[in-house]
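re the bet — no i am not wrong, look at it urself. input seq straight from the record:
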Amino acid sequence: MSASLQKLNVYDQDAIPSAHVSQDQATADGDWYWRPLTVLVGFWLFAGVVGICFDAGRSYLDQPIREVRVIGDAQYLDRQMLASNVAGVISAPLLEQDIAALQDRAQEHPWVRQAQVRRVWPPAIEVVIEEQRPVARWGSKGLLNHQGDIFWPDNPQQYSELPQLDGPATETQLLMAQYHDLSRLFQDAGLRMVALSLEKRGAWQVKLDNGIRVIVGREDTKERLRRFIYLYKAELVAVADRIEQIDIRYTNGAAVSWLPEPTEALAEEAK
């Protein structure tokens, strides 16, 4: 064996000294602190690009509102007026505009039961409405919707064909239910009820389409009205045009108040 070969060191695979490391491994170990920095720089570059794109997109979308549209069935509501009212509180471009403020303005309109406001593109505002459905007059100035809610439109006298209900504001549901119940009772007798009122102490009063007021009271409402209908058809229908009021709170009869005779009315005017 030559002298040069005797100097060659031979090792088993698992016994290689730590000092004998490959050049690639040494290079990798030397770059360990650069990798997180590279990732961080890449992340910030990506975030910057995303931010620039977002700002550009927002600037493109956030333009002045050009139109207000009212969507939904409307029989009593003036759409143009509602759109103008909503437009009156627009104070910012599309994305910056306070939608809640627009919705509050829309729901201030007496004929709007519910309103939903949304942004659309090109820059516009859509107001999706549910209109009030009037089913009765409330007192002399209000109307009732189909759920028993009171609202106060302009010129309620225009809806004189609707029945008139009156009573405590907390009893609208009871009044509506009683009206529908009693209406069927009168309809079966060929009569039509046009008004129903409930006093604070619970007494009922009815008005018929011929102008007669019927004082019903608090108890046995249906039984008393059945007795009234029998009495009316048997004895009073022929003189109905002379009757002002009928009080049926009595057990075995009724008290009739008559309209003044023409001569009596002229005498009262002379005085």
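see?? The two ends are 159 Å apart (CA to CA). told u. also The first helix runs from residue 3 to 6. so pay up
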